Amino acid sequence: MKSLRLMLIDAADTTPQYLPLNLLPNGEAILVEHAASALGIKLTLDFFEPDLVLSEFSLETLQSMQALEVLHELRPGLPLIIVSDRHDEQLVLRAVVRGAFDCVPKHDRTRLLIAMTHALNASRERRLRAKAERSLQESEMRFRIFMEQVPDAVYMKDLEGRFTFVNSVAKRIIGLSAGQIIGKTLHQLYPSDVANRLDANDKRALLVRQPVETTEQVDTPTGQRVFRSVRFPIIGMDGQVTMTGGVSVDIGQRSSAVPERVAAR
């Protein structure tokens, strides 16, 4: 059972009786930490990762709005509920405008329970999104590290023919940096006759929806080279083609031994 983690910004070391903790999901397993100053909040967040923060508006040593500023700086998106001794529409408006999740009268247990439940759900969704984003970033990093170890040119293009990825070998073959390649089409990087031949191979792969192997001649910074290339469609989760991928293996310089007919067509 995962414990709920609650930070209370108040002047006490005991959990207030007005908090409906026993009515919350997993309320029987809740961890509470207290802080009574901006420094206290910062120090607590060094070792404690709360799901929700409650701040008493009547706290003299730290105004609730100041608590919002500290939390926004250190934990953007962490929900904070301001608990007040009175119902004050102006206070509610100020709190929400400044980023508070809600502002609730202290002794309205029903409304406080609803606000805390909604805030905990929002916090849970935020954590899930953050976890998914981290997983995606890690996956992209592993992909790029792997592709940089491939000894051949690897590249991907969107359905409009714009490069979306090139590894270091592809950059050396084209003779430009990634920033000069990404977002460009073959026709922006090569003479029209070369671009037409290479682009035709991409379109063939998209048309037949399977890998297409060709031999291609391309001018590189080290001279004209001959490549054995494979173009293939990349299929999305919905079964639709989302982009094209390619791998090109350098098989040597062009010579009289290489007939003109091996050029990509």
Keyword list:
265 residues, Rossmann fold, elongated, five-stranded parallel β-sheet, single chain, 39% helix, Beta-Lactamase, alpha/beta
Briefly say what this structure is:
The chain is an alpha/beta fold. 39% of the residues lie in helices and 27% in strands.
Low-confidence stretches: 254-265
- Assign the structural class, choosing from mainly alpha, mainly beta, alpha/beta, alpha+beta, or little secondary structure: alpha/beta
Can you name the CATH architecture of the largest domain? 3-Layer(aba) Sandwich
Q: Could you name the CATH class of the largest domain? A: Alpha Beta
Task: Please outline the helices and strands.
Layout: E1 4-9, E2 30-35, H1 38-47, E3 52-56, H2 64-74, E4 80-84, H3 89-97, E5 102-105, H4 109-149, E6 153-158, E7 163-166, H5 168-174, H6 178-181, H7 186-189, H8 192-208, E8 212-220, E9 223-235, E10 241-253
Parallel strand pairs: 1-2, 1-3, 3-4, 4-5
Antiparallel strand pairs: 6-7, 6-10, 8-9, 9-10
Question: What does this entry look like structurally?
Answer:
- This protein is 39% helix and 27% strand.
- It is elongated, with a radius of gyration of 30 Å.
- The chain has 2 domains: 4-139, Response regulator (Rossmann fold, 3-Layer(aba) Sandwich); 150-262, PAS domain (Beta-Lactamase, 2-Layer Sandwich).
- It is of the alpha/beta class and 265 residues long.
- It has a 5-stranded parallel sheet, sandwiched between helices. It has a 5-stranded antiparallel sheet with strand order 7-6-10-9-8.
- It is built from 8 helices and 10 strands.
- It has helices at 38-47, 64-74, 89-97, 109-149, 168-174, 178-181, 186-189, 192-208; strands at 4-9, 30-35, 52-56, 80-84, 102-105, 153-158, 163-166, 212-220, 223-235, 241-253.
- α1 (38-47) packs parallel to α2.
